[in-house]
Design a protein that fits this description.
It comes from Brassica oleracea (Wild cabbage). The protein has about 270 residues and is mainly beta. It has one helix and 17 strands. The protein is globular.
Amino acid sequence: MFAEKHFHPLSADSPGTHIAGVRSSVGPFRGVQAWFSGNSLNVGKDQVSYSHIYIGSGSENQVNYISAGWIINPGLYGDQRVWTFGFWKGKDGKGYYNTACSGFVQVSKVIPIVEPYDLKTGVPGWMRYSIHQDKNTGNWWITQLMKDAPNEDIGYWPKELFNLLDNGANMVGVGGVVQASRSGLSPPMGNGNLPNGGRQDSGIFTNIEVLNSNYKQRKMNSFRTDNLLDSDKCYGLRIGTVKPFHRTHLGFFFNYGGPGGISCGV
């Protein structure tokens, strides 16, 4: 399978990997969800750029992990289009994409786990994904949350694939990740802009919520969170703020991303 190092959930500890996002590690959590944009970007054959939500649990020498979102990965898909994806790492220690191996169970007949989108430059696509644990079966589902239509369950990862997720996940997070080329050139993240302008001028995650240990839905910042940004030379992270006594339909949100470049660090 494609190198799983691009999906390490704890830190950007692989050479050339850079991250910008928010994580909470005070679980157990039963799920995470967010609205987030996907954007057409110039990503080389040996580069990767993606935006995702994820859940995970780790021990001293093992990680169980589920991730889903938008990705541009010419080395995997053979083109520069934006694709939806699902990725998981279970008790066998290996990482798998989509339905490339037995594990993920596709249920929806209208929304596949992996699908290409021909997005125009500067015109984002939007998704609202939820990864959550079924209260009765313990399986982990991915659902497309709809604004004006019933939610669509895309499919699930059976609980038997994992050995550290029986009672929820210790960690949940959302954000962007890139993998540089062998020459050290890092690709764009988000929509390629640093989060220095308005809310729609860079990549954005909105309405970021979690399911707590009792399956109650809460804003992620109801819990202690960590801001993750390892290369402020090339990327940025700006947590959303709302003026006192003002309300927003964005919930807990942040802007992120940047152009990449040659001096982003190891």
